[in-house]
Amino acid sequence: MNNKEILSCRQLSRSFEDGENRVEVLRAVDFALKTEEKVAIVGASGSGKSTLLHLMGGLDSPTEGVVEIAGTDLASLSENRRSELRNQTLGFVYQFHHLLPEFTALENVSLPLLIGRNRSQSLSRTAVEVAAVEILQRVGLGHRLHHKPAALSGGERQRAAVARALIGKPAVLLADEPTGNLDRESAQQVYELMLKLNSEVGTALILVTHDLDLAQQMDRRVVLIDGVLSEA
Ligand SMILES: Nc1ncnc2c1ncn2[C@@H]1O[C@H](COP(=O)(O)OP(=O)(O)O)[C@@H](O)[C@H]1O
Ligand SMILES: [Mg+2]
User: Fold this and answer.
1) Cα(24)–Cα(84) distance, rounded to whole angstroms?
2) The whole model's pTM is what?
3) CA 13 / ligand 2 centre spacing (Å)
4) Other beta carbons less than 10 A from residue 223's beta carbon
5) List of domains in the chain
6) Which are the contacts of 41, defined by CB distance < 8 A and separation ≥ 6?
7) How far is the CA of 25 from the centre of ligand 1 (A)?
8) Closest ligand 1 atom to Cα of 45
9) pLDDT of the chain, 232 residues: tens digit per residue
Protein backbone atom coordinates (compact mmCIF):
# COMPACT_ATOMS: atom_id res chain seq x y z
CA MET A 1 0.00 0.00 0.00
CA ASN A 2 1.37 3.45 -0.69
CA ASN A 3 0.30 6.61 1.02
CA LYS A 4 -1.45 8.38 -1.82
CA GLU A 5 -5.08 9.33 -1.16
CA ILE A 6 -7.39 8.00 -3.84
CA LEU A 7 -10.67 9.14 -2.30
CA SER A 8 -11.47 11.66 0.40
CA CYS A 9 -14.48 13.31 2.00
CA ARG A 10 -14.27 16.58 3.89
CA GLN A 11 -16.99 17.86 6.18
CA LEU A 12 -19.57 15.96 4.20
CA SER A 13 -23.20 16.51 5.15
CA ARG A 14 -26.38 15.28 3.51
CA SER A 15 -29.89 16.09 4.59
CA PHE A 16 -33.24 15.38 2.99
CA GLU A 17 -36.35 17.55 3.12
CA ASP A 18 -39.32 15.42 3.98
CA GLY A 19 -42.37 17.69 3.97
CA GLU A 20 -41.91 19.94 7.00
CA ASN A 21 -39.08 17.84 8.36
CA ARG A 22 -35.44 18.06 7.55
CA VAL A 23 -33.66 14.75 8.07
CA GLU A 24 -29.92 15.07 8.64
CA VAL A 25 -28.52 11.77 7.44
CA LEU A 26 -24.78 12.55 7.39
CA ARG A 27 -23.10 15.12 9.61
CA ALA A 28 -19.64 16.56 8.83
CA VAL A 29 -18.07 13.29 7.73
CA ASP A 30 -14.29 13.33 7.23
CA PHE A 31 -12.75 10.28 5.60
CA ALA A 32 -9.70 9.43 3.51
CA LEU A 33 -8.88 6.24 1.63
CA LYS A 34 -5.38 5.42 0.47
CA THR A 35 -4.48 3.60 -2.71
CA GLU A 36 -5.01 -0.17 -2.27
CA GLU A 37 -6.41 0.29 1.25
CA LYS A 38 -9.29 -1.87 2.52
CA VAL A 39 -11.79 -0.22 4.85
CA ALA A 40 -14.99 -1.56 6.39
CA ILE A 41 -17.92 0.73 7.17
CA VAL A 42 -20.17 -0.65 9.87
CA GLY A 43 -23.25 0.80 11.51
CA ALA A 44 -26.88 0.08 12.30
CA SER A 45 -29.55 0.02 9.63
CA GLY A 46 -30.54 3.59 8.80
CA SER A 47 -27.26 5.10 10.05
CA GLY A 48 -26.42 6.53 6.61
CA LYS A 49 -24.04 3.93 5.12
CA SER A 50 -25.65 3.72 1.67
CA THR A 51 -26.09 7.49 1.54
CA LEU A 52 -22.36 7.90 2.20
CA LEU A 53 -21.42 5.37 -0.50
CA HIS A 54 -23.65 7.15 -3.02
CA LEU A 55 -21.88 10.43 -2.27
CA MET A 56 -18.45 8.80 -2.54
CA GLY A 57 -19.43 7.36 -5.91
CA GLY A 58 -20.78 10.63 -7.29
CA LEU A 59 -24.28 9.16 -7.59
CA ASP A 60 -25.69 11.80 -5.23
CA SER A 61 -24.53 15.30 -4.26
CA PRO A 62 -23.79 16.45 -0.70
CA THR A 63 -25.71 19.23 1.01
CA GLU A 64 -22.34 20.48 2.22
CA GLY A 65 -18.74 19.38 1.93
CA VAL A 66 -16.43 17.92 -0.68
CA VAL A 67 -15.73 14.51 -2.21
CA GLU A 68 -12.42 14.18 -4.04
CA ILE A 69 -11.46 11.25 -6.22
CA ALA A 70 -7.86 11.05 -7.36
CA GLY A 71 -7.49 14.69 -6.33
CA THR A 72 -10.51 15.95 -8.30
CA ASP A 73 -13.46 17.59 -6.55
CA LEU A 74 -16.53 15.80 -7.97
CA ALA A 75 -18.60 18.99 -7.74
CA SER A 76 -16.18 20.78 -10.08
CA LEU A 77 -17.03 18.39 -12.94
CA SER A 78 -19.83 18.47 -15.47
CA GLU A 79 -22.26 15.55 -15.32
CA ASN A 80 -20.49 13.99 -18.31
CA ARG A 81 -16.99 14.32 -16.90
CA ARG A 82 -18.25 13.01 -13.55
CA SER A 83 -19.67 9.85 -15.09
CA GLU A 84 -16.48 9.42 -17.11
CA LEU A 85 -14.39 9.63 -13.94
CA ARG A 86 -16.81 7.21 -12.26
CA ASN A 87 -16.45 4.72 -15.12
CA GLN A 88 -12.68 4.95 -15.16
CA THR A 89 -12.02 4.95 -11.44
CA LEU A 90 -14.83 3.25 -9.53
CA GLY A 91 -16.54 -0.11 -9.41
CA PHE A 92 -19.83 -0.72 -7.58
CA VAL A 93 -21.32 -3.85 -6.06
CA TYR A 94 -24.69 -3.75 -4.33
CA GLN A 95 -26.76 -6.09 -2.19
CA PHE A 96 -28.75 -7.03 -5.29
CA HIS A 97 -26.73 -8.03 -8.32
CA HIS A 98 -28.40 -5.63 -10.82
CA LEU A 99 -27.33 -7.78 -13.76
CA LEU A 100 -29.41 -7.22 -16.88
CA PRO A 101 -31.77 -10.20 -17.21
CA GLU A 102 -31.77 -10.35 -21.02
CA PHE A 103 -28.00 -10.64 -21.28
CA THR A 104 -25.61 -13.51 -20.60
CA ALA A 105 -22.95 -13.38 -17.89
CA LEU A 106 -20.36 -12.66 -20.60
CA GLU A 107 -22.43 -9.81 -22.05
CA ASN A 108 -23.20 -8.31 -18.64
CA VAL A 109 -19.53 -8.31 -17.68
CA SER A 110 -18.48 -6.88 -21.08
CA LEU A 111 -20.86 -3.92 -20.90
CA PRO A 112 -18.71 -1.50 -18.86
CA LEU A 113 -15.84 -1.87 -21.32
CA LEU A 114 -18.13 -1.63 -24.35
CA ILE A 115 -19.59 1.59 -22.98
CA GLY A 116 -16.09 2.91 -22.23
CA ARG A 117 -15.01 1.87 -25.72
CA ASN A 118 -17.47 4.28 -27.29
CA ARG A 119 -15.49 7.06 -25.66
CA SER A 120 -11.96 5.91 -26.27
CA GLN A 121 -12.37 3.52 -29.24
CA SER A 122 -9.17 1.92 -28.02
CA LEU A 123 -10.41 -1.61 -27.34
CA SER A 124 -11.59 -3.95 -30.08
CA ARG A 125 -14.70 -6.03 -29.51
CA THR A 126 -12.50 -9.13 -29.38
CA ALA A 127 -10.25 -7.58 -26.73
CA VAL A 128 -13.31 -6.79 -24.61
CA GLU A 129 -14.53 -10.37 -24.90
CA VAL A 130 -11.11 -11.77 -23.99
CA ALA A 131 -11.00 -9.56 -20.89
CA ALA A 132 -14.56 -10.57 -19.89
CA VAL A 133 -13.83 -14.28 -20.29
CA GLU A 134 -10.65 -13.90 -18.27
CA ILE A 135 -12.29 -12.17 -15.32
CA LEU A 136 -15.25 -14.58 -15.37
CA GLN A 137 -12.76 -17.44 -15.18
CA ARG A 138 -11.06 -15.72 -12.24
CA VAL A 139 -14.35 -15.52 -10.35
CA GLY A 140 -14.97 -19.21 -11.06
CA LEU A 141 -17.62 -18.71 -13.76
CA GLY A 142 -15.68 -19.89 -16.79
CA HIS A 143 -18.31 -22.60 -17.25
CA ARG A 144 -21.23 -20.13 -17.05
CA LEU A 145 -20.29 -17.60 -19.74
CA HIS A 146 -23.47 -17.95 -21.76
CA HIS A 147 -25.93 -18.32 -18.90
CA LYS A 148 -28.39 -15.54 -18.20
CA PRO A 149 -28.80 -14.34 -14.59
CA ALA A 150 -31.96 -16.41 -14.05
CA ALA A 151 -29.94 -19.56 -14.76
CA LEU A 152 -27.26 -18.70 -12.17
CA SER A 153 -27.31 -19.32 -8.42
CA GLY A 154 -27.36 -16.36 -6.01
CA GLY A 155 -23.65 -16.71 -5.31
CA GLU A 156 -22.85 -17.00 -9.02
CA ARG A 157 -24.85 -13.86 -9.81
CA GLN A 158 -23.02 -11.92 -7.15
CA ARG A 159 -19.65 -13.16 -8.41
CA ALA A 160 -20.67 -12.04 -11.90
CA ALA A 161 -21.56 -8.63 -10.43
CA VAL A 162 -18.09 -8.47 -8.83
CA ALA A 163 -16.52 -9.39 -12.18
CA ARG A 164 -18.51 -6.64 -13.88
CA ALA A 165 -17.40 -4.11 -11.24
CA LEU A 166 -13.73 -5.07 -11.60
CA ILE A 167 -13.31 -5.62 -15.33
CA GLY A 168 -12.22 -2.00 -15.82
CA LYS A 169 -9.59 -2.40 -13.05
CA PRO A 170 -11.04 0.44 -10.99
CA ALA A 171 -8.88 2.21 -8.41
CA VAL A 172 -11.69 1.85 -5.86
CA LEU A 173 -14.42 -0.74 -5.38
CA LEU A 174 -17.46 0.47 -3.43
CA ALA A 175 -19.41 -2.50 -2.08
CA ASP A 176 -22.69 -2.00 -0.22
CA GLU A 177 -23.58 -5.13 1.76
CA PRO A 178 -22.63 -7.22 -1.28
CA THR A 179 -23.43 -10.54 0.32
CA GLY A 180 -26.49 -9.57 2.31
CA ASN A 181 -28.59 -12.03 0.33
CA LEU A 182 -26.20 -14.98 0.23
CA ASP A 183 -25.72 -18.03 2.37
CA ARG A 184 -22.57 -18.17 4.48
CA GLU A 185 -20.53 -20.22 2.03
CA SER A 186 -21.36 -18.14 -1.06
CA ALA A 187 -20.74 -14.98 0.96
CA GLN A 188 -17.30 -16.24 1.94
CA GLN A 189 -16.47 -16.99 -1.72
CA VAL A 190 -17.48 -13.52 -2.81
CA TYR A 191 -15.39 -11.93 -0.03
CA GLU A 192 -12.35 -14.03 -0.82
CA LEU A 193 -12.69 -13.02 -4.42
CA MET A 194 -12.82 -9.31 -3.56
CA LEU A 195 -9.76 -9.67 -1.31
CA LYS A 196 -7.89 -11.60 -4.00
CA LEU A 197 -8.64 -8.97 -6.63
CA ASN A 198 -7.68 -6.25 -4.17
CA SER A 199 -4.23 -7.76 -3.85
CA GLU A 200 -3.83 -8.70 -7.53
CA VAL A 201 -5.28 -5.61 -9.21
CA GLY A 202 -4.49 -3.16 -6.39
CA THR A 203 -8.09 -2.00 -6.13
CA ALA A 204 -8.85 -0.17 -2.89
CA LEU A 205 -11.96 -1.45 -1.16
CA ILE A 206 -14.73 0.25 0.80
CA LEU A 207 -17.01 -2.39 2.16
CA VAL A 208 -20.27 -1.81 4.00
CA THR A 209 -20.96 -4.90 6.05
CA HIS A 210 -22.71 -6.28 9.11
CA ASP A 211 -20.23 -9.13 9.25
CA LEU A 212 -17.76 -8.31 12.02
CA ASP A 213 -15.46 -11.22 11.11
CA LEU A 214 -15.14 -9.81 7.65
CA ALA A 215 -14.69 -6.27 8.93
CA GLN A 216 -11.73 -7.59 10.93
CA GLN A 217 -10.07 -8.68 7.68
CA MET A 218 -9.93 -5.07 6.41
CA ASP A 219 -7.00 -2.73 7.14
CA ARG A 220 -9.28 -0.39 9.09
CA ARG A 221 -12.85 -0.04 10.34
CA VAL A 222 -15.03 3.03 10.66
CA VAL A 223 -18.45 3.20 12.23
CA LEU A 224 -21.42 5.41 11.39
CA ILE A 225 -23.68 6.31 14.28
CA ASP A 226 -26.59 8.60 13.39
CA GLY A 227 -24.62 10.01 10.48
CA VAL A 228 -21.44 10.70 12.44
CA LEU A 229 -18.38 8.75 11.28
CA SER A 230 -15.59 7.72 13.60
CA GLU A 231 -12.79 5.16 13.68
CA ALA A 232 -14.03 1.90 15.18
N1 LIG B 1 -33.78 10.00 -0.78
C2 LIG B 1 -34.05 10.04 0.53
N3 LIG B 1 -35.02 10.84 1.02
C4 LIG B 1 -35.29 10.90 2.34
N5 LIG B 1 -34.64 10.18 3.27
C6 LIG B 1 -33.67 9.35 2.85
C7 LIG B 1 -33.31 9.24 1.47
N8 LIG B 1 -32.30 8.34 1.36
C9 LIG B 1 -32.04 7.92 2.62
N10 LIG B 1 -32.86 8.53 3.52
C11 LIG B 1 -32.85 8.30 4.97
O12 LIG B 1 -31.54 8.37 5.42
C13 LIG B 1 -31.32 7.45 6.49
C14 LIG B 1 -30.13 6.59 6.17
O15 LIG B 1 -30.40 5.76 5.06
P16 LIG B 1 -29.29 4.82 4.43
O17 LIG B 1 -28.13 5.64 4.02
O18 LIG B 1 -29.96 4.00 3.39
O19 LIG B 1 -28.89 3.93 5.70
P20 LIG B 1 -28.15 2.53 5.79
O21 LIG B 1 -27.57 2.22 4.45
O22 LIG B 1 -27.09 2.74 6.85
O23 LIG B 1 -29.15 1.54 6.25
C24 LIG B 1 -32.62 6.66 6.64
O25 LIG B 1 -33.34 7.20 7.72
C26 LIG B 1 -33.33 6.92 5.33
O27 LIG B 1 -34.70 6.90 5.50
MG1 LIG C 1 -27.84 0.60 3.16
Assistant:
1) 30
2) 0.92
3) 17
4) 17
5) 5-231 (3.40.50.300)
6) 49, 52, 53, 206, 207, 208, 209, 221, 222, 223, 224, 229
7) 7
8) 23
9) 567 999 999 999 999 998 889 999 999 999 999 999 999 999 999 999 999 999 999 999 999 999 999 999 999 999 999 998 998 899 999 888 899 999 999 999 999 888 865 555 677 889 999 999 999 998 889 999 999 999 999 999 999 999 999 998 899 999 999 987 778 888 888 888 888 888 888 899 999 998 888 899 999 999 999 999 999 8
Q: Whole-angstrom distance between the N-terminal and C-terminal Cα of the chain?
A: 21
Q: From the CA of 14, how far away is ligand 1's center (Å)?
A: 10
Distances (CA, A) of 151 to 49, 62, 134, 155, 175: 31, 39, 20, 12, 24
